[in-house]
Amino acid sequence: MASSDSRIEGMVVCPRNVVVVHELAVDSDYRGKGIAKFCLAMTLDNRLEIDVVPGVYDQAKDPRPMHNRWGFEGLWATYIQDAAVMLRSLAARLGELRLSDEGSWQVLTSSEV
Fold first, then answer.
1. CA 94, CA 37: separation in Å to the nearest integer?
2. Phi, psi for residue 22 in degrees, rounded to 5
């Protein structure tokens, strides 16, 4: 992986400091109810790692506003499955995630969701 992005270089040097969320999906009948936020908060609660990197498939129903609201930034995108699917990788520092509706700079614990 060639990149001059220091965030990526730091993750490659010390991958034990990174939480990777390969996929987080909510059935369309249940979206908008805070399920993804709850799952992410439960996953990240009391973690020792520094960075979190979720993967987002392009066929997901426009998750960008949600991820932007939470404080994730794009790292890179790659095609997989013989270029049939694009996978975007995002990143955030755990202490900088904004998972609350008020936009506070903290990772919410499960009791705060």
1. 14
2. -65, -45
Residue in this structure with the two tokens 């009391």, named with its chain if needed: 46
Read off φ and ψ for residue 95, nearest 5 degrees: -75, -5
- Residue 19 amino acid letter: V
What is the DSSP secondary-structure string of 75-108? EEEEEETTTTEEEEEEEEEGGG-B-STT--SBPP
- As a residue count, the chain comes to 113
User: 71-112: per-residue pLDDT in tens?
Assistant: 888 888 888 888 888 888 888 888 777 766 554 434 444 344
Which pTM does this prediction carry? 0.67
Which DSSP state fits 19? E
- Which residues of 1-82 form beta strands (DSSP E)? 18-21, 51-57, 73-80
Q: How many CA atoms lie within 13 A of 111 on its CB side?
A: 1
Give tens-digit pLDDT for 18-63: 888 888 888 889 988 888 888 888 888 888 888 888 888 877 666 7
Instruction: Evaluate whether 87 touches 57 at the Cβ level (below 8 Å).
Output: yes
Give the pairing type, strands 18-21 and 73-80.
Answer: unpaired
